[in-house]
Amino acid sequence: QVQLVESGGGLVQPGGSLVLSCAASGFTFSVYTMMWHRQAPGKERELVAAITSSGGSTNYDGSVKGRFTISRDNAKNMVYLQMNSLKPDDTAVYYCNAVLYSATYRNYWGQGTQVTVSS
Q1: Measured between alpha carbons, how far is residue 65 from residues 21, 24, 96 in Å?
Q2: Which of 16, 44, 77, 101: disulfide with 12, CB 3.0–4.6 Å?
Q3: Could you tell me if 2 and 107 are in contact, meaning their C-beta atoms sit under 8 angstroms apart?
Q4: In whole angstroms, how large is the CA radius of gyration of the chain?
Q5: Is pLDDT of 52 > 90?
Q6: What is the C-alpha separation between 27 and 46, in angstroms, rounded?
Q7: 43 CB contacts (<8 Å, ≥6 apart)?
Q8: Cβ-based neighbours of 78, under 8 Å, separated by 6 or more
């Protein structure tokens, strides 16, 4: 049974930091590209950050570049999103996403974790 379980969300003041975690199970984590997406109220879901299966390459949306860091631990089947200098515009539900780009395409989602940036 495939599972992606996010944790670490919450309420934080502007300028603060949070670390989101995503625990993966039920699939071969180390061959999947992992991503974090977010969806704010009334807005489309957007890609925030991505990391390749080996962790050797990362990519970020321009709005978070320099503030957020995606990382993964293939030994623990975990992916993380370190979020610094948080802004009210970062308020959203954050989703963990696993994608296998091969002849057999797979795409899995977590249930999401709420991040609220407010004073």
Answers
A1: 19, 25, 18
A2: 16
A3: no
A4: 14
A5: yes
A6: 24
A7: 92
A8: 21, 22, 23, 24, 72
In whole angstroms, give the CA distance from residue 48 to residue 113.
14
Show the DSSP H helices in 11-109 as ranges: none
Nearest partner of 9 among 96, 114, 112, judged by Cα: 114
CB within 8 Å of 87: residues ≥ 6 apart: 14, 117
> Does 69 have pLDDT greater than 90?
yes
- The stretch 28-37 carries a mean pLDDT of 97
Please name the residues in contact with 104: beta carbons below 8 A apart, sequence gap of 6 or more: none
On the question of pLDDT at 28 being above 90, the answer is yes
Q: Report the distance separating Cα 74 and Cα 113, nearest Å.
A: 22
Question: CA 43, 44, 46 angle in degrees (round to 5)?
Answer: 120
